[in-house]
């Protein structure tokens, strides 16, 4: 992909989007679709913050140039031309990062890459808002990921051993972004798991992330975005993909006649969405998720119900 023209210095008013723009730069070669939507989110957010100050207008103008250049380069990519595909791509990517970090956390493997993966996952969930409001599950994942990144970062910084796995979250804690991972305001000791606000990602209902069903705690493939870079100097066990259990196919779905079933345009749109989610899951070789979403599409088309 051709290099993009550099942006002018970031105005102080746009501090809240600096990490989203950095994530975009990091993904220019790794995943241009993610880079595109990170910039789109930064553009939309920046317009809401300040579109009148000269330095802000200049910055947003250059950012718009980058977006137009990217859109031209990705003109034949469905993840850019079709919002349903783009949303599925971004959600799958964010969830894979989240699961990688969550697995490392549960296994007690605390290192800079897993902290960054937690925090980047939370930033990408921010970006999903370009497609509309977040689901409750998305909101919970974002808060948990950002909190975990801050908590583990602070523990390692202070020479303390983090508590592995799900812990309670204090509702009134705001995460402040820093240059390292993006947070320093959280307490170095988390509330005890018995807290009424305890949050366990594995307790989320099936269908989290807008219908993408991935077994909680499942290992992300070794080639996920969160793969440990050699330059970190951190020793960490490689995350290997765990054996996948492919969901059984319900034979009744093959024999159901459409009969008098009348599908609405919304039904067709939802069925298309599940098929797009399945295609996106296959990009990560996640057969179980692909089959589950295809089953949901088939059930909707044959019975008119989900």
UniProtKB/TrEMBL annotation:
<protein>
    <recommendedName>
        <fullName>Vacuolar protein sorting-associated protein VTA1 homolog</fullName>
    </recommendedName>
</protein>
<dbReference type="GO" id="GO:0005829">
    <property type="term" value="C:cytosol"/>
</dbReference>
<dbReference type="GO" id="GO:0015031">
    <property type="term" value="P:protein transport"/>
</dbReference>
<feature type="compositionally biased region" description="Polar residues">
    <location>
        <begin position="232"/>
        <end position="245"/>
    </location>
</feature>
<feature type="compositionally biased region" description="Acidic residues">
    <location>
        <begin position="169"/>
        <end position="180"/>
    </location>
</feature>
<dbReference type="GO" id="GO:0005654">
    <property type="term" value="C:nucleoplasm"/>
</dbReference>
<feature type="region of interest" description="Disordered">
    <location>
        <begin position="160"/>
        <end position="252"/>
    </location>
</feature>
<comment type="similarity">
    <text>Belongs to the VTA1 family.</text>
</comment>
<dbReference type="InterPro" id="IPR039431">
    <property type="entry name" value="Vta1/CALS_N"/>
</dbReference>
<keyword id="KW-0472">Membrane</keyword>
<feature type="domain" description="Vta1 C-terminal">
    <location>
        <begin position="265"/>
        <end position="302"/>
    </location>
</feature>
<dbReference type="GO" id="GO:0032511">
    <property type="term" value="P:late endosome to vacuole transport via multivesicular body sorting pathway"/>
</dbReference>
<dbReference type="Pfam" id="PF18097">
    <property type="entry name" value="Vta1_C"/>
</dbReference>
<dbReference type="InterPro" id="IPR023175">
    <property type="entry name" value="Vta1/CALS_N_sf"/>
</dbReference>
<keyword id="KW-0007">Acetylation</keyword>
<keyword id="KW-0967">Endosome</keyword>
<keyword id="KW-0813">Transport</keyword>
<keyword id="KW-0653">Protein transport</keyword>
<feature type="domain" description="Vta1/callose synthase N-terminal">
    <location>
        <begin position="16"/>
        <end position="158"/>
    </location>
</feature>
<keyword id="KW-0963">Cytoplasm</keyword>
<dbReference type="GO" id="GO:0010008">
    <property type="term" value="C:endosome membrane"/>
</dbReference>
<dbReference type="InterPro" id="IPR041212">
    <property type="entry name" value="Vta1_C"/>
</dbReference>
<dbReference type="InterPro" id="IPR044538">
    <property type="entry name" value="Vta1-like"/>
</dbReference>
<dbReference type="GO" id="GO:0005771">
    <property type="term" value="C:multivesicular body"/>
</dbReference>
<comment type="subunit">
    <text>Interacts with VPS4B. Interacts with CHMP1B. Interacts with CHMP2A; the interaction probably involves the open conformation of (polymerized) CHMP2A. Interacts with CHMP3. Interacts with CHMP5; the interaction involves soluble CHMP5. Interacts with IST1.</text>
</comment>
<dbReference type="Pfam" id="PF04652">
    <property type="entry name" value="Vta1"/>
</dbReference>
């Amino acid at each position: 992909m051709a290099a993009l023209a550099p942006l002018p210095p970031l105005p102080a008013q746009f501090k809240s989007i600096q990490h989203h723009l950095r994530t975009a730069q990091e993904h220019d070669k790794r995943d241009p679709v993610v880079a595109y939507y990170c910039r789109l989110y930064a553009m939309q957010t920046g317009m809401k913050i300040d579109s009148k100050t000269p330095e802000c207008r200049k910055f947003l103008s250059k950012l718009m140039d980058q977006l137009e250049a990217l859109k031209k380069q990705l003109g034949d990519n469905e993840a850019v031309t079709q919002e349903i595909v783009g949303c599925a791509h971004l959600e799958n990517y964010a969830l894979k990062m989240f699961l990688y970090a969550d697995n490392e956390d549960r296994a007690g493997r605390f290192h800079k890459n897993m902290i960054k993966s937690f925090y980047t996952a939370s930033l990408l969930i921010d970006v999903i808002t370009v497609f509309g409001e977040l689901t409750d599950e998305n909101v919970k994942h974002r808060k948990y990921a950002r909190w975990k990144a801050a908590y583990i970062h602070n523990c390692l910084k202070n020479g303390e051993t983090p508590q592995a796995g799900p812990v309670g979250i204090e509702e009134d804690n705001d995460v402040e972004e820093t240059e390292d991972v993006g947070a320093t305001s959280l307490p170095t000791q988390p509330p005890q798991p018995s807290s009424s606000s305890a949050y366990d990602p594995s307790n989320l209902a099936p269908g989290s992330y807008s219908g993408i069903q991935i077994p909680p705690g499942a290992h992300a493939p070794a080639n996920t975005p969160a793969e440990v870079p050699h330059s970190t100097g951190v020793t960490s066990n490689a995350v290997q993909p765990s054996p996948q259990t492919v969901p059984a196919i319900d034979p009744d779905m093959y024999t159901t006649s459409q009969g008098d079933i009348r599908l609405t345009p919304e039904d067709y749109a939802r069925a298309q969405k599940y098929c797009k989610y399945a295609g996106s899951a296959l990009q990560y070789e996640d057969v179980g998720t692909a089959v589950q979403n295809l089953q949901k599409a088939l059930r909707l088309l044959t019975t008119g119900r989900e």
